[in-house]
Amino acid sequence: MQGWHPRRLIELWNKFAVEKTTENDSPEMFGGHQLFIILELGNAGLDLEAYMFLSAHQTLSVSQKVTCGLEVTEVELEFEHRNLHLGNVLV
User: Fold this and answer.
1) Residues near 51 by Cβ (< 8 Å), separated by ≥ 6?
2) Which of these, 30, 20, 40, 11, lies nearest to 85 by C-alpha position?
3) Is residue 18 very low, low, confident or very high in pLDDT (cuts 50, 70, 90)?
4) Please, which pLDDT band fits residue 15 given cuts at 50, 70 and 90?
5) CA angle centred on 42, ends 68 and 22, rounded to 5°
6) How many CB atoms lie within 10 A of CB 89?
7) What's the confidence (pLDDT) of residue 77?
8) How far is Cα 13 from Cα 69, in angstroms, rounded to an integer?
9) Whether 36 contacts 27, CB under 8 Å
10) Is the Cβ–Cβ distance between 14 and 50 less than 8 Å?
């Protein structure tokens, strides 16, 4: 999308920021020319901050898959994530 973020999205972002905290800037800071993606995920799993891995091998496997998947996406689609952290990876 391009333009100002929808009011409902800002409301949900503010709710999340209060309930879970965030180090990200509010999307309200971006102007009307900003490109962005909106994803709505009903039950998409746990983020890596909340997920409890069963072994070091499992942790390494997920880390490698996320890293390789993101690398391919960035190269093939000329995409740059810019906000990768454990809370943005769902398993």
Assistant:
1) 91
2) 20
3) very high
4) very high
5) 65
6) 19
7) 87
8) 26
9) yes
10) no
Alpha-carbon Rg for the chain in angstroms: 15
Q: Please report where in the chains the tokens 């995920």 appear, as a residue.
A: 41
Distance CA 68, CA 70 (A): 5
| Both structure tokens of 80 | 């740059």
Q: Write the single-letter amino acid at 53.
A: F
Tell me the C-alpha to C-alpha distance, in Å, between residue 10 and each of 13, 16, 25, 45, 89.
Answer: 5, 10, 11, 23, 21
Q: How many residues does the chain have?
A: 91
Contacts of 31 (CB under 8 A, 6+ apart): 4
Alpha-carbon span 67 to 48, nearest angstrom: 14
